[in-house]
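User: For a reading group we're discussing how well predicted structures match intuition. Take GntR family transcriptional regulator. Before you show the prediction, I'll give you the sequence so everyone sees exactly what went in.
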Amino acid sequence: MNKDAALHSIVKESIIDMIKSGEYQPNTKLPTEAEFCNTFGVSRTTIRTALQQLTVEGYVYRVQGKGTFVAENKIKQSLTSTVEQFSEQITLQGKAPSIKVLQLKVIEATDFLAKQFNQNIGDPVNCLERMRYVNDAPLQYEISYLPWHKAPGLDSAACEKSLYKMLETKYNIKIRKTIEHLELVLADDTISKKLEIPAGSPCFLLETFAYAEDETAIEYSKTIFRGDRAHFVIERNY
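Assistant: Thanks. Here is the predicted 3D structure of GntR family transcriptional regulator, as structure tokens, for the group to look at:
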């Protein structure tokens, strides 16, 4: 094992523990590199590496000429709950959620979408782009596709609330289940602008397939979360 790698990992995890325990509060200044060197008995290089990783992972942020500060708590979202409980989950954390429709249009089904929705290539498909914010700061960007013949005339304003509730009340379509795939990706130029993060920043990609009660596919979506602000909780009952 690389000794330096092991040391900076130990230091990083120790600082994370102190942040989570409340010893270091959000937006308060952390000790200097020199002070951390004395605390942990390691080199400045080890401390600097640990702080760089903490910055990338969203636990701390740096202010030029002032030092390193503790970041706001990450936004917790339960993967065990439905995505439509987004607003409730955020509100319970004392934060203000909001949704903005960036674009709503009808496109022609690609080969991939046609297979998902059991349609023909070129059939009309709703394409919905939305941003979700917490305290007016971007948390996630999502693009959803829905077969037009199932949900003709989607309303942009209604899509700034619960999409699934709107499908149920307006089209009598109740989502029965979703199948989701979560993976780590790096932000490209487009995503970096939308989420206001540097290109190459780590993000979570959630790919979702939603099905109605009759097992027909109703929605396919891709959601990209800021890696420095998102925190997922998975609960299992045995």
